[in-house]
Write a structure and sequence with these properties.
The protein is α+β, with helices and mostly antiparallel strands and 139 residues long. The chain has a 5-stranded antiparallel sheet, covered by helices on one side. Strands 1-2 form a two-stranded antiparallel sheet. A hairpin with a 4-residue loop joins strand 5 and strand 6. Its EC number is 4.6.1.24. It catalyses: [RNA] containing guanosine + H2O = an [RNA fragment]-3'-guanosine-3'-phosphate + a 5'-hydroxy-ribonucleotide-3'-[RNA fragment].
Length: 139
Amino acid sequence: MKFLSAFLLFIAPISLALPTSVIERPVEDSIEARQCYVQCGSTCYTSSQVTAARNSGYNYVRQGSTAGGSTYPHRYNNYEGFDFLVSGPYYEFPLRTSGVYTGGSPGADRVVFNGSGQRAGEITHTGADGSAFVACSGW
């Protein structure tokens, strides 16, 4: 019993010195933020970025409006013949590495979703001929 008491007296100051709270890291430093869920050309997008773009685009479709006076989202006719994850009709909406698209230049990368808001896949103009698209990797 003396040994146990002495041991507890020895470790008590050590346990009191240990931190009691967890340090929260910003989203940009989280593991998820660093993962490449989809890669379009040399640009990586996280699952959160793809989902945010899809949700934003689908909300515009449901409201019958577009982002910031642009034409996005708009119907995507799949002239390239991609085998998407879900059936159409399809819509395309620009992908962003920061925030969601609100108008202006759309960049090269798009999330594609159907009329029910389901993710179909991601496409990019990077590496494609003219105004065509190629598939992003990861879907």
